[in-house]
Write a structure and sequence with these properties.
Elements: E1 9-12, E2 17-18, E3 21-22, E4 29-32, E5 45-49, E6 54-57, H1 68-77, E7 87-93, E8 101-107, E9 111-114, E10 122-131, E11 134-135, E12 142-145, E13 155-159, E14 170-173, E15 189-191, H2 207-218, E16 226-228
Antiparallel strand pairs: 1-4, 2-3, 5-6, 6-9, 7-8, 7-10, 10-11, 10-12, 13-14, 15-16
Pfam family, one: fn3
Region (Disordered): 29-48, 60-86
Protein name: Fibronectin type-III domain-containing protein
């Protein structure tokens, strides 16, 4: 007998037949087929990526399959209060380390956050499902990447050469940490001071008060706040 359903009990009996007729039925025999491992799960998918972590989730089986036998197995393998318990093994490979695939999760859940990863790095993942009757094949491998980080502050900004009447030359050192990506540009901002006009001469005794009042009056107008200096982008 072939094409039977896994984990199913069958009741059987047999009779003999010749040209004169048939024999009585034999005594009944009860037999059960063994179980089968779960079908191959779908490739795990990304839920959230961080600088040092990746969160993955997965489904119990390939619900998009058109194979009738596999769909029947999927229905039988769905975990129910009285049904088989399905566990999942998630493995990760860091090609830079050369260790191959290593297990990062083994349990009945369908989501896991892998932490302590390197930023802006590609990792490969695969998934298998298992029950009391064995383990499925591995899913297709998926490659996911952690995010880069922001660079740290540029260092030691200073004057380069003596100041001139209408220009200043500045230099600075690159950040100690580029965040995992090459520095593409620097943005220099400058606070523009209020300069009294010749027609509105302010006595020196009131200069500090006028400067303070002017700062307050110009807040939010784009004058007394940090402005990007166009020539400093590079």
């Amino acid at each position: 007998m072939t094409q039977l359903t896994p984990s199913t009990e069958y009741v059987l009996r047999v009779m003999a037949e010749n040209s004169y007729g048939t024999s009585p039925w034999s005594s009944i025999v009860t037999a059960s087929t063994s179980g089968s491992p779960p079908p191959t799960p779908r490739t795990p998918h990304l839920v959230n990526s961080g600088v040092h972590s990746l969160t993955l989730a997965w489904y119990s089986s390939n619900s998009g399959s058109n194979n009738a036998n596999q769909q029947q197995q999927q229905q039988q393998q769905q975990p129910t209060p009285n049904g088989p318990t399905i566990s999942y093994t998630l493995e990760m490979e860091d090609e830079a380390m050369g260790h191959g695939f290593v297990t990062v999760f083994d349990g009945t859940g369908t989501e896991h956050c892998v932490g302590n990863l390197r930023r802006n790095t590609r990792y490969r993942f695969r998934l298998a499902a298992a029950n009391a009757d064995g383990r499925s094949r591995w899913s297709e491998v998926v490659t996911l990447s952690t995010l880069p980080d922001r660079p740290t502050t540029p260092r030691a900004m200073r004057l380069s050469g003596p100041p001139l009447s209408n220009r200043l030359s500045l230099v600075w050192d690159a950040p100690e940490d580029d965040g995992g990506l090459p520095i593409q540009a620097y943005r220099l901002e400058v606070r523009l001071p209020y300069v009294p006009s010749a027609d509105n001469t302010v006595q020196s005794s009131h200069m500090s008060d006028t400067w303070s009042d002017m700062n307050k009056s110009l807040l939010g107008t784009g004058v007394d706040k940090l402005l990007c200096w166009p020539r400093a982008i590079g």
